[in-house]
Amino acid sequence: MSKLALSSLYQLTVTRLKLTLREPEAIFWIFVFPILLAVGLGIAFRNRPADVLPVGATTPQLVQALAADKGLRATEMDEAAGTRALATGNILLLAIENSNGVVYRYDDTNPDARTARMIADRAIQVAAGRLDPVAAENQLVHETGSRYIDFVVPGLLGMNLMGSAMWGLGFAVVDARAKKLLKRMVASPMPRWQYLAAYLLSRLVMLAIEVVVLLGFAWVVFGVPFRGPLLELALICVLASLTFSALGLLVASRARTIEAVSGLMNVVMMPMWIMSGVFFSPSRFPAFLQPFVQALPLTAAINAMRGNMLQGAQLGQMMAPVAILLAWFVLPFAVSVRIFRWR
Amino acid sequence: MRGKTSQVQVDTSRGQTDDCFALRIRGLHKAFGAVHAVHGIDLEVKPGECFGLLGPNGAGKTTTIEICEGLTTPDAGTVELLGRNWGENAAQLRQLIGIQLQETQFPEKLTVEELLRLFRSFYRRGITLDEAIGLAQLEEKRGARVGGLSGGQKQRLAMATALVGDPELLFLDEPTTGLDPQARRHLWDLVERLKQAGRTIILTTHYMDEAEQLCDRVAIMDHGQVIALGTPKELIATVGGADIVEFAVSRKANAGPSTRPVVPGLARDDESGYGHGGVDIEALKAIPGVQSHRMEEALHQLSVSELHTAVPRIFAELEEQGLHLSEFRTHSATLEDVFVRLTGRNLRDE
Asked: Looking at the partner chain, which of A7, A22, A23 has a beta carbon nearest the beta carbon of B121?
């Protein structure tokens, strides 16, 4: 056997990895679930081409004028039919010709209807011979990075790192304790720190796979941008994973049953699922909650990932979230090593 | 497997003064709350000995062995293993001893080979994987997952994890509890082979036949104390006879006039000789070879040294007393009888 294969830390880590990969449920939650979520959200929030707004008009002349604008789809109808169509949402605006000129009937609380009002008016005025005093032309840009999918992918990544680190570690530790395996391990010459370190190391290996799968998918399918240094993004992921592993270790350090540890996990993770900005910006929470929200490790992790991926920020510009993550790594790890129940 | 010669080499290389004892316990106490699990125990185990802690569940066997294993801290007393102690030489001792705990469940999704490779990596020196697998006779299950093993195979695997470090001292806590008779025999064979290889073994059990079969010396424990200590032979000899006669009686319907009146209302275990279902105990005890008498429910138990001459006289005496035998059997005295004599209870009742 090689020297590496004889090392107990290596054997413990390899064993941990094998045990994780032999749980089919783990594979689903770690690899498949985030992709399914990304696909679902990507479909729901995909950016559609600019909508063509349906409008109605009472005369053929008006219909012709309106149809000249590519942003509108105009249909001729009399006033009674048009009112009905408005009420049922089939059209957003009805243009009615009268002796003075034209009347627009629409709902001014509907943004699409207001847009239709402006486009329709412009089309009718231009058709009537209006000349714009200032020459204007359009330059269209469709910028990636400002879409919802761009926003949500770093959030999903953070949530996934938290979930897999905490569930993976917490359950495995408590299961080993309940089955008296922990006791058997400390009855051997195995150094205790290696047992805990093997969990963190195997998490790092899983992390590499998880991150590459999720981000690779987001990049290939949705074209999510990576504007910051990739190496720094990797560092952020490693730090976040260590942080959540330490937190998982802390949560699992005393519990004797799977039920107890599940409850604790949910108590710890629930505030972060809601407040840490996975699906929407945490700035929506009121000011008095902000210090708490910003101090959560998942908020810090997601902020750092968004900063890197979307804004191209350097690690040096994100010392606050990095410091928060470090603190959440060091303190829980130190405490859990101290209070860990080995039997 | 290690032979006698390498054992000697290891011993001389250590050159310690305390080699006369593999384990020495002095004045051990341990309480869990109000429960005094271990209440003043002194024991010595010599190198190469197979030493058994025998007692009912709750006697303090596991607490005692776990204190020896360095897993539980005693409230008072000292433990010395291989001339070392847990306070100063814990890391060294972990390398030198092998431990099998009660009811450890190894990860079901690891294979036999993977689990043993993991445990082997904890020890600086030890036997090879193949040797460990061969020792536990799990060659055919090498690639099988732990979850698919039978109870006996799991127990032999647990034994193998205790042996991979080639320990000088082996602790086995209830190695055959919950196994079927065949699997127990299989495990006994394994322990026998380890004994022949000169290994020091300390085991706990609540099976008297196991202790009798495997152990060179036995300490019988009850309520946290050692109530008897010696070789199985010595202990059995304390019962007073080599055999135990058990019988139950009923009075004959047409019983002739008894030579002695039966006094009703006397306590059953009155030593006067009356009140034992009409059996005159003193007359029975007067028969040459009958050493002692006790009652177990409605069953009379006599310990007897000269079975072949005593039994006909017992029959004659009971006939004389006008009693009808409804049950009669004999067996060789066992450690069970020793426990019963010392405590008045059965080992397995607990």
From this structure: A7
